[in-house]
Specification:
Oligomer: heterodimer
Structural class of chain B: mainly beta
Helix content of chain B: under 10%
Order of helices and strands of chain B: EEEEEEEEEEEE
Strand content of chain A: over 45%
Helix content of chain A: under 10%
Number of helices of chain A: 0
Shape of chain B: globular
Number of strands of chain A: 12
Distance between the termini of chain B: 37 Å
Number of helices of chain B: 0
Number of strands of chain B: 12
Shape of chain A: globular
Largest sheet of chain B: 7 strands, mixed
Largest interface: A-B, 26 and 24 residues
Largest sheet of chain A: 6 strands, mixed
Radius of gyration of chain A: 13 Å
Radius of gyration of chain B: 13 Å
Strand content of chain B: over 45%
Chain lengths: 113, 113
């Protein structure tokens, strides 16, 4: 069975600093990779996805992520965060042929002024 | 844009009551999901449906059932609510292909007293 590990449960950072949220998944032949963001009292919304092609994918709000097949990682990055980026971030993996994604436990990004 | 609507944002029910959580999507998606979200545990899949009247158990189906009589509507039923079912419940939908991301509703925060 697929598993997804988000290595940090909380990441505190100061405004305008860069940030990286880490995600590793167990190996599979083919995977689709997603990052979702959840603002307080809301559902999750898609930040970005990797399906195939270029390993660097860009998403909304200035976020990007890099797919590394050899390290089975899909880390999320932003060069300069804003207070409004404070939220919960979830990494998810869908293995080829499966309808059901596997989610990580989430990383709480806390941006301080 | 896909809209996934959950009928209630907040619900308070008594132990032993039968509880219905309703979810409607407007984009003709084949797949629909019910998750519960608890602090530190991330998202856990309760049930999944890939077609009308078709359902599969997720990771934590005990104490829950589902109904999908129409493609756009997926209901979660708590047969006899218990205090350990106090949680945030999230509904999601997606197209049938594995590369399709999930679209989430805003969640229902259920409190069982």
């Amino acid at each position: 069975a697929q598993s997804v590990t988000q290595l940090d449960s909380q990441v505190p950072v100061f405004e305008e600093a860069p940030v990286e949220l880490r995600c590793n998944y167990s190996s599979s032949v083919s995977v689709y990779l997603f990052w979702y963001v959840q603002y307080p009292n809301q559902g999750l919304q898609l930040l970005l996805k990797y399906l195939s092609g270029s390993t660097l994918v860009k998403g909304i709000n200035g976020f990007e992520a890099e797919f590394n097949k050899s390290q089975t990682s899909f880390h999320l990055r932003k060069p300069s965060v804003h207070i409004s980026d404070t939220a919960e971030y979830f990494c998810a993996v869908r293995s080829g042929g499966s309808y059901i994604p596997t989610f990580g436990r989430g990383t709480s990004l806390i941006v301080h002024p | 844009d896909v809209k996934v609507t959950q009928s209630s944002r907040y619900l308070v029910k008594r132990t032993g009551e039968k509880v219905f959580l309703e979810c409607v999507q407007d984009m003709d998606h084949e797949n629909m999901f019910w998750y519960r979200q608890d602090p530190g545990l991330g998202l856990r899949l309760i049930y999944f449906s890939y077609d009308v009247k078709m359902k599969e158990k997720g990771d934590i189906p005990e104490g829950y059932s589902v109904s999908r009589e129409k493609k756009e509507r997926f209901s979660l039923i708590l047969e006899s609510a218990s205090t350990n079912q106090t949680s945030m419940y999230l509904c999601a939908s997606s197209l049938g292909q594995g590369y399709s991301p999930l679209h989430f509703g805003n969640g229902t925060r259920l409190t069982v007293t």
